[in-house]
């Protein structure tokens, strides 16, 4: 099956599954372009998965692209920060559990297994880890889903963008320490107030 046939097959599947809500029309070219870098064998499988899991609306090309990309990477859905946190907690009890690259990156940004095991504030640690993990997932998702021609266009125009101006630097401030006599007087006053 070539690429165009795969796209038309997926669109026909949507048309059959969502009568009156989706028709295969003149927009085949747009769907082909949005799915141009996707393996043709994945497209009908992703369409079938969407039809079997989402009953109330026909998928658009972006949704089909997202599902194709996930399936191309051996996933049905994006991992969540909460799921990743549970794996981190499992890691507390076993060294045999191998963390994913994203779990390792989020962990590196927030703490270490050693520190997390000994933490006195697990709810804050959890929140920081989940936030870091979810940001990594969002970044990866955007990178994966951006069409190659869009990436190329952005790269082509990147040098034309104005350089980022750094914020003005303030002169360093030397800390002012009290002289030795002031410190002695303060210590004496404190001792006197406590009756020492």
Q: What is the helix fraction of residues, given as a range?
A: 55-70%
Report low-confidence residues grouped into runs of 5 or more. Answer: none
Into which percentage range does the β-strand content fall? Answer: under 5%
Mean pLDDT: 87
Structure write-up:
- By secondary structure, the chain is an all-alpha fold.
- It is 61% helix and 0% strand.
- Among the domains are: 3-72, Replisome organizer (g39p helicase loader/inhibitor protein) (Helicase, Ruva Protein, domain 3, Orthogonal Bundle), CATH 1.10.8; 81-145, no CATH class.
- The protein has 10 helices and no strands.
- The radius of gyration is 28 Å and the shape is elongated.
- The relative contact order is 0.08.
How would you briefly describe this protein structure?
The chain is mostly helical and 196 residues long.
